[in-house]
Every structure is written in C-alpha cells, then in structure tokens.
Amino acid sequence: MAPVAAAVTRVLITGFGPFQNVPVNPSFAIVSRLPTTLPNNIEIYTHPSAIPVSYHPTIELLPELYGSTQPDIALHIGVAEGRKYFAVEAGSSRNNFDLIRDNDGRNFSDAEGVAAWGDSPTRLDTDLDLDGTIESWQERTKDFKWPAMLSREMQSMGDVAEQKVDVKVSRGLSVAMGNVEEEEISVMAPDPDDEVRWSDNVGFYLCGFIYYAGMVQKSRMTAAEGSANARVGKRDTVFMHVPLLISDEEIGVGVDVTTELVQSLVENWRALKE
C-alpha cells in the first residue's frame, strides 16, 4: 500500500526593503527569487514587495498578510550586517522599539505596544522546534559551496552574543540591529564555524519588531482564519538573519539556504503535529 502523501503545508515568507546604508536589502533579494512550491507538498507564499523598514506600516500590514495567506508557518527574514553566517533567532522582546527611528523618522513606543499586543509577555519565543530544525538545516547545507565571504576561513569567532561568556555592552545601533547583546547573558555557544546556526540576538529594530508582532499575530489566528492543518494558538513563526549578501552568487546561496531551512522547518513542524 502506497504511503499517504503529507497534507500541503503553507509557508509565508517576507523580506525587508532598503534602510540606512543598505540600499539593496538581501533579505528581499532572496525572497523575490524563491520558488512557489517545494518537494513534499510545501507551498511558499511570498509578499510581492519588500516590507518597509518602518514600524507602523509593518504592524498594519501583518493582520491582512497572515489572514490572506493563512500560513501554517511564517518565516520573516532580515539582514545583520556584521555577521558572516545565517542564523535562526529563538525569540524577541516587545520593549525598546523606541531605541532608534525607522525610515519614516518614527519609533514605536511602549504605550503603542500595549495597544497592539495587550498583556502579551515581554518576551516571546517561537513554538517551532528550533533544535530539530537547526540540526536538520545544518545537515542539508553541509555540502554547500559557500562564497568567500561565508567560508570558514573568512569567518570571525562569532558575535559576542553567541559566545559562552557573560558580556555587557552599551545600547546603540548595533544592539538594536541585532549585532550585539545589550544585557548580560550566558548561553551555549554554537560552533563559530557553522555557516547556519541558532541565535538569540534578533535585536530591537525592525527585525525584532516583525518577529514579535508576527508571533502575536500567528498565535491569535483562529481555526477559521488558518489553514485546515494549522496549529491553532501556536507561535509557529520564526525569524532568520542573513549576512550582507551582495553578489548574485551570494544571493543565490541565500536562496538555497532559505529553501533548505523551509524544508527543515516543515519537517519538524509536521512532527510536532503527530
């Protein structure tokens, strides 16, 4: 008897537009090149334009975007200029979105956060299985030919947030962008040579903002608003930081890395449903 095919899993993916000294954001360059389907009954829904690097347009867009695509999984992508690797972020916090102004010259106050998210916890983590996802993702990409900027020989020892140390740095732009941590932390360090890895440093700018807002939005979707096999009430949303990819070769690798991440996310999401 032939095995029963898996039900279609719907994955929403977004990327950001230009900001500050990033005139071409590689996150949307990747998203705009993704296929609409992947093997094993996976459908990809990409937002047709870059998400503006602005708080209010972003949060106004999310309800319609999630509602119209009815994703089982949402993947938001952004760039971390100082990194030389791809990283899936564990979670995000709702405070400190007033640290720096967005492309519209505005910030997002804690009072606005209360109005948007009510009594949602200060910190939210994805409900997806990151351990299983990262393990699978690393296996799927282990034979990739990495561009010079991402090769092991060119990598630094990883950013300070992901060393097995306690570290304290002052607030500033790199904190908000997710390049360094602001608070004291002590976490297990991933292998600093891994081109794809786990992280817990999404930052306090639009990357952290869309991640937190996306997790809230996904958890609020009802059975009527989601697909037939969605996990109602779960934060099945995740965020990936990509390096500052520039060349066509680098963007192409980014597309391949992303499709393998999607496969890994879906594989582990389906296991959670069993």
UniProtKB/TrEMBL annotation:
Q: List the Pfam families hit by this protein, alphabetically.
A: Peptidase_C15
Q: Name one GO biological process term.
A: proteolysis
**Residue spans crossing the bilayer:** none
Mention one GO molecular function: pyroglutamyl-peptidase activity
Gene3D superfamilies, per the entry: Peptidase C15, pyroglutamyl peptidase I-like (3.40.630.20)
Q: Which domain of life is it from?
A: Eukaryota
- Give start-end of the signal peptide: none
Keyword Hydrolase part of the UniProt annotation: yes
UniProt keyword annotation of Transmembrane helix present: no
Instruction: Give the record's keywords alphabetically.
Output: Cytoplasm, Hydrolase, Protease, Thiol protease
GO cellular component term of the entry, any: cytosol
Family designation: Belongs to the peptidase C15 family.
Name-wise, this protein is Peptidase C15, pyroglutamyl peptidase I-like protein
Q: What is the lineage of its organism?
A: Eukaryota, Fungi, Dikarya, Ascomycota, Pezizomycotina
